[in-house]
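Moderator note: this is an archived Q&A kept for reference. The question asked for a predicted structure of one protein chain; the sequence and the answer are reproduced below.
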Amino acid sequence: KAYEIFSRGFTSGVFQFESPGMRDILRRYQPTRIEDLTALNALYRPGPLQGGMLDDFIERKHGRKAIAYDLPELRPILEETYGVILYQEQVMQIASRLAGYSLGEADILRRAMGKKKAEEMASQRERFIRGALERNFPQRKIERIFDLMEQFAGYGFNKSHSAAYAFLAFVTAYLKAHYPVDFMAALLTSETGNPVKIAKYINECRDMNITVLPPDVNSSDWSFTPVADLLGDAIRFGLGAVKNLGPSAVEGIRAAREPLGRFRSIYQFCDTADLASINRRMIESLIRAGAMDSLEGNRAQLMAVVEGAMEAGQRAQRARESGQEGLFGEAFIAEHGHEEKPLPVVPEFALREKLLGEKEMLGFYVTGHPLDQYEEKTHELATHSSGNLEGLEKGVEVALCGVITGVQRKRNREGKPWASMVLEDRNGAVEALLFTTNFERLSSMLAEDQAVLVRGLVLPEENAPPKISVQDIVPLEVARVPLPSLISIRVWLRKNGDAANGNAGDRVAALNDLFRRKAGDTQVRLRLESPRDFTVILDVPTKVRPDREFRAEIEKLCGAEAIEVLAN
C-alpha cells in the first residue's frame, strides 16, 4: 500500500517526493522497492534530468531498453540501478573491483572526479587502466568503463544520503497509506496559517475520499482532528485555523462546551463561554467561518444578534460572579441571566457572501467554491490547474479557470500601466501578470472575486512557482464551451458484421442511449468500417452534446480516437 501511494503520485506530505515534477516521475516510474526510491532521490536533480538520464532509467526499469554490462564483474555493482552508474559509492566499488584500489584510493578518485581537474583525472585514468590491465581485463573495455565513470561522477550522488531520504519517505508513505485520515489531519495541522498549503492538502483529501468538515464550535479542537462522520472517515477543521482566534479563546470554548456536550444557541454560547477571552470580533469570525452553523439560526441571523447575545451573556456571568444567582435562584436567572430572544427574521446571506466570509476567515473556501456552479464549464475549458504548471516550458499556452483575487495595478518605468493578480482554483493559486500590451483590452475584467477563464503563457521562475502571462480573460458566466457542428464516430466491424468492441446490437443500443442522454446541437455521422475495405456512412437523426463525458463514453464503446471533428 505504501508503494501505491508513490505510484499514484499521492505524495503530499511525503518527504522529498511532494513536488509536481516528482509526482509525474513517480507515476511513470511505478516504484516497487526501497532501491527505486533511493534511485529517484539521486536522479531528480538538474544534471540527470537535463542529460536525459532519468528517461533512460525509466525505460530500463520497465524492460523497454536492454541492460548490458561491459564486464560480468559489473553486474553485482550496477544491477540495482539497471546497469547505470548512479552513485558515488558505485564508482568506488568499480575502482576497487576492477583496478585494485584500496578504499582510501577509491575515495580520492571520487573526489577527483567531483573536482574535474584535468591533471588529477589524467593521473587517475593512468592508475585505473594500469591496475585493471594487471588483472587481465581488456583495455578497450576498461577505457570505456572509466569514461562512463567520469561522465556519471559529474552528477553522481551519495547513496547513503539518498537511501536515508528514501527510508524516511517510505515510512511517511506507509503512515499515509495505512492511517490516511490521521496522517492528513496531522499534515493539515502542521500547515495551520498557510492557506495555500491547506487548500492543496484539502484537495488531496478529496482525491483520497476523505471528507473535510468545516470548523464547528460544537466539535472542533484547536487542531485538525480525525472524526467518524455519517459519510465515513472525515477530518474536522480546527478552530486554530480561524482568523482572530488564539489558543486562549479556543481553550475557553472547549472548557465551556465540555459540561454541556453541545452549545444549542448563540445565547447559550455567550452565557457559558468566558467572554473575558472571547470578544465580539472573535464571535463574528466564527460565524463568518461557518463555525457556528450547528447553532440555531443561519449566519445572517447570528450576526444580527451578536451584540445582544454578548450583553445577555455578560450580565449572566456578572450575576454568577457576584453570587446573585445563588441568592435569588431561578427567578433571577429567568429575568436577568440566560436570556434568549427570538432570532430576527432576516434572509440568509447569499452563497457568494458566505463563501467570501469563509475565504476571509480561513484563507480558502470550505462549504463550497465559487467555481462549483461552473463545474461542467471548467472541465471543458481548462487545460491546466494551478497545481500542474510546474515543469512546463516558457511560452506554453494554458487555460485555467479560477477566481481573481489580489489585483494590483502598476506602472512600468515608461509610465505604462500593467497589473498583477492571483488566480485561485481548487488546487491552489497562481500569480497572473497582465502586461502593457494586453492591459487596455483586458483591464476592465480585473474584478476581485470574479470567476473567470484565463488564457495565458507559462512563465517559469527559478526556485519559485511559475507565473502566467495573461493573453485573455473571459468571465465564466458568459464563457462558452466550443462544440463542433458535425462529428464522425468510427465503429470497426468484424467479418461477421459485429462491432469490434462487442456485439453489434448491444453497441447500437448503448450508442442510442448515449445520444438520447446527451442531446444537443451537434450532428453525428456514423462510419461503419469493415475489414473488407468498405465503409457505410449513416447520419444519426439525434443531435448530441459532445462534451467530456460524451467523449469518454464513446472511447469505451468504440475505442480511442473514434471521434473526428468534421465541422466547427
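Archived answer notes: The longest helix spans residues 299-322.
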